[in-house]
Amino acid sequence: MTDNVLAAHSAPGAPVPYDAVVLAGGAARRLGGADKPGLRVGGRALLDRVLTACAGACTTVVVAVPRATVRPVRWVREEPPGAGPVAALEAGLRLITAERAVVLSADLPFLGQAALERLLAALRDTDADGALLTDSTGREQPLVAAYRTGALRRELAALTVAHGGLTGLPLRRLTGALRLIRVPDPLASFDCDTWDDIANARARIREHGHVLDEWISAVKDELGITLDVDTGMLLDLARDAAHGVARPAAPLTTFLVGYAAARGGQGPEAVAEAARKAAALALRWEEESNGGEDGSSGGPGAPDAG
């Protein structure tokens, strides 16, 4: 049972503790049997993108054959392998302890932490059993959802008794017995079932307005960086260095800022302070090359007067 309630923006509050269960099995028949979790969008495997989105989970369980991933997770398989999403979810729930569980498929290229926080906040503010995303057509996405773990376990036990097991049961048999609320989010709920979906996702991240954030996220994943910094500040620094010194100064300066902050073992504040100092230096450098504070014509490239 689903309530047509919802909240595009939830009230602020403390972060809600949760565990995550990611279903990464399935035959991917509409993709010709391809390894869907391993398909890349923006240079990152779909599974890794989902794992980045739920990095705030206390415990993350992936139901699939183990593989290399962007961060450590716990692995489990449904019994028997290939028994379907309900059996896979039950297997994942065995390894978590939090009162709330975020349940995700492994094919969500645009899922982010903010969408999960909205789901958890919506669930926190009601007595519903769960909160799920809906797409642009209003279609519910039960594998982009936050649930009360106790409610899932209760209904899974009931299904096991009623059907003698969970093998082959469709997910709607489980979610149909739960009281759910809907959170519209066409982007975060977008999943990749076909090659056209993959192509559309790959094209979208290269659009102006998305490509820079996507690239920064990909680089951070590749390098194992979790630090969040103000990219606008770094771009301003790069602009100042390129304009006031020379174009190659832009990437070299931003590298040195990052190195300086890392050497100190500090967080975003250290990056901001190093960027401030470097930006001020670039402006002084430009000022000198334009004539100096006293209006003289000497610059870095000027010959010695003596």
Automatic annotation (TrEMBL):
Give me the ranges of the annotated region Disordered.
286-306
Domain DUF6457 spans what residues? 208-289
Point to the regions of Gly residues compositional bias. 292-306
Q: Which UniProt keywords are present, listed alphabetically? A: Cytoplasm, GTP-binding, Magnesium, Metal-binding, Molybdenum cofactor biosynthesis, Nucleotide-binding, Nucleotidyltransferase, Transferase
Which biological process terms from the Gene Ontology are attached to this UniProt entry?
Mo-molybdopterin cofactor biosynthetic process
Under Gene Ontology molecular function, one entry of this record is: GTP binding
Q: Does the keyword Nucleotide-binding apply?
A: yes
Residues annotated as domain MobA-like NTP transferase: 20-164
Question: Know the name of this protein?
Answer: Molybdenum cofactor guanylyltransferase
Species, as recorded: Streptomyces pluripotens
